[in-house]
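Example (one chain per record):
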Amino acid sequence: MTADATDAPTGPSGLQHGIVHGDHAAVITQVGATLREYTVRGRPVIDGFGIAHRATDGRGQVLAPWPNRVAAGRYTFGGRRCQAPLTEPERGNAIHGLVRWLDWVEITDTADEVVLGCDLRPQPGYEWQLHLEVGYQLAEHGLTVSTTVVNTGDVNAPFGLGFHPYLTLGTGIGEVHLRLPARTHLPAPADPDTRATPVDVSGTPLDFRSPKPIGAAQLDTAFGDLERDTDGRAVADVSDGVRHVRLWG
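Predicted structure:
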């Protein structure tokens, strides 16, 4: 049974869309189509945020039409020179796109699935238009997130997509083992007009291709060149020796 949207609880993140399947439960918000909460047998799988608060540090948010950062907010595409707002002013970057704080519209809402959509209109810093839909569905194996993006304009548009879940086991981060099948990372260049070059992680503290403790490492890192399994999936795994959380895409 699901509640009508008009009866759903609200907060700074708007309407709350709760979905359930067996021991799995999740809450997705109207603002940003954000994954606010995900639990299995009552234990948190993500470090989300309360209904009385907004998302902080990008937690649970959809990052589009670009993830990560655009240095100085400047880029050129299709002959257009663009200057996006510097939403990370302390570092001089445009960070995590433009849809995080938009109200998304309900398209599908059932007991175990919700699909939300939004239209991104041309604006300073992004002169193209897109229709985006993000779906969250629970099943026995966990939570599946799917995305559909349609260019509703008449010219090619630049586009990138990311998600920002904070996986948790409820233990201190230093006790967690991480496996991340990435061959390279992308350091931020000191000069915003310089194109970043991927760097091999081999032999560095950023090589997590074999499970190892995170320890004192501070990771605010863009990884790339993912190694994929026979199903074409790249799988990240965090574990405390008893519990495991896996993320694949």
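Caption: The domain at 1-166 is CATH 2.70.98.10 (Beta-galactosidase; Chain A, domain 5).
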